[in-house]
Amino acid sequence: MNSLIAxxxxxxxxxxxxxxxxxxxxxxxxxIKLKALPAYYGYYLSLxxxxxxxxxxxxxxxxxxxxxxxxxxxxxxxxxxxxxxxEQTLSFFNGNFSGxxxxxxxxxxxxxxxxNVIAQNSKIVIIAAALISSLTFAYRKIxxxxxxxxxxxxxxxxxxxxxxxxxxxxxxxxxxxxxxxSLKFFSTINIFEFIFGTSWSPQRAxxxxxxxxxxxxxxxxxxxxxxxxxxxxxxxxxxxxxxVAVPIGLFSGIYLAEYASTKVRKYSKPIIEILAGIPTVxxxxxxxxTVGPFFRTLGESLGLTVSSESALAxxxxxxxxxxxYISSLSDDVINSVPQSLREGSYAIGATKSETIKxxxxxxxxxxxxxxxxxxxxxxxxxxxxxxxxxxxxxxLTINPLESTTTITxxxxxxxxxxxEFDSPKTQAAFALGLTLFIATLILNYIALRVVKKYREKxx
Length: 459
Prior knowledge:
- This protein folds into two domains: 2-163, no CATH class; 228-457, Orthogonal Bundle (MetI-like fold), CATH 1.10.3720.10.
- Helix content is 76%, strand content 0%.
- The chain contains 17 helices and no strands.
């Protein structure tokens, strides 16, 4: 039903555009001078047709399940596990329930069916009323020869502002949720033990209410959440990745910008950028099934002990994954260096390689550094590759042939399955997430500042 309603709204929006444009042209035949091009009248009518209806449809679809759930559960106050009961009701209503069918489930299913019918009919009526009202209002405006272009621009500005506001509020919501849960974690675990501790074993934490932890258990927990091995593992794998990505990405960017012909560049750059579009889980499979066993076999032939899940395998594949970030951005930065700098270098007798080394690269260096910092933040936040290829043991090591773990890996492992969110073990994931968020935020800020400085210099 929802797909049908959305499809009808979109079809009406498209039809309204052509209708509004034709009505504007009719005004021309009546010797009325239009205040905008006919297309803007079509845009105006289409926007007024779609936006109110889509807003109502989106809000209704967002809040309808919660309201229906509250209305149903209010009729069964004797039920203890309300969430489980509601899920059983939905399963029975959809014909997927295989457990014991009680009278309460049957009654709730009947109630759900009636409320759902009322909700669907009400939604159709309200959206239809909104469509008729908004179309009538917009049509009268067109008949009065309004300044359609100005009105369309106002609507689009409001739409763009709202989109920006949603993005900002989403970021604020993420920060607040991380801070709230992290503060609860640090009320139990000492922040200095978390930052400077060298033992990470959250499985020792009891999955229970933090307020019920005894002093002896609290002392034991303080030694279970030392995050230094996670920070070290994250930085170590990111370093291996950058050792792979920076030379290859930078050299390929220089080649594409300075040496490659137009035909070679036309095909080479999209092929390189395909690497950025491959799902990270595919890289993880490749690292776990191919690269890791290859290094282990190679190490055994050389008499070395190599773990099947090693930091080297994860870092190598992660480096391949982030090559396009450095290559593409470096290529764009080098191409934006003014041609006059190259011509001045050639004029004093410098060769092409000397010009690139002593003129182009120094001029593009701030932008290149910015691309590298952005790639570093991407490497630090990578999850699937390190989950599948780096291992789960929090080893404090600098041996690339051993397994290690990262912050993102531990967040995944802590939050797998059903968790009690009042437990320090689960809250540790939010503390790690906050730490990772701050680290990537700092790197992104530095990168943007460096790029901004570059742009101001060559604007």
